[in-house]
Amino acid sequence: MTSLAPLEPVTLTGKYVELQPLSRAHEEGLIAAVKDGELWNLWYTSIPRPEGMAAEIERRLGLQAAGSMLPFTVIDPASGRIVGMTTYMNIDLAGPRVEIGSTWYARSVQRSPLNTEAKLLLLSHAFDRLGCLAVEFRTHFFNHQSRRAIERLGAKLDGILRCHQRTPNGALRDTCVYSIVAAEWPTVRQHLEYKLGVPQR
């Protein structure tokens, strides 16, 4: 496959997580989720405050309309509760290549199988259905929790973009860029399935 048609909204469902296309109707649930841990107080992230959630939803939906993002609302299927957001972003149709990013989860579901399975679903769709050459992850140099989580997936550090962008408070951000390439995907998939207790092929 040499190119992608514009990405269409899709629901990705697993045992521990469901990823639904982002909707304005999700605002109330997303506000409750972001209050679980007051996630906006992490200085090295750009997680929306409760009063900014509507604007964040509009921003993501605008990027979807422009073809550069496909945003999801993260659902805990056991409770039906909204617990976060994630996206395909920086979509390169010519590759094809995508970044998985702009992700945050309520504190109560962090360090649970939910995130591992969400990444497995997103990676499976990107490589197996969309035919991506590579999937990228980016995070703040000082976001050590995120960096460890990305490395546990099996992604490799491509490099660090120095003074890459400014954070909302004006500070300069160094961005760590990781990726998984198509040739690595079968091994990464086996690793993630093993972590989730999926019977090995």
UniProtKB/TrEMBL annotation:
<keyword id="KW-0808">Transferase</keyword>
<dbReference type="Pfam" id="PF13302">
    <property type="entry name" value="Acetyltransf_3"/>
</dbReference>
<dbReference type="GO" id="GO:0016740">
    <property type="term" value="F:transferase activity"/>
</dbReference>
<dbReference type="InterPro" id="IPR000182">
    <property type="entry name" value="GNAT_dom"/>
</dbReference>
<feature type="domain" description="N-acetyltransferase">
    <location>
        <begin position="18"/>
        <end position="156"/>
    </location>
</feature>
<protein>
    <submittedName>
        <fullName>GNAT family protein</fullName>
        <ecNumber>2.-.-.-</ecNumber>
    </submittedName>
</protein>
<dbReference type="InterPro" id="IPR016181">
    <property type="entry name" value="Acyl_CoA_acyltransferase"/>
</dbReference>
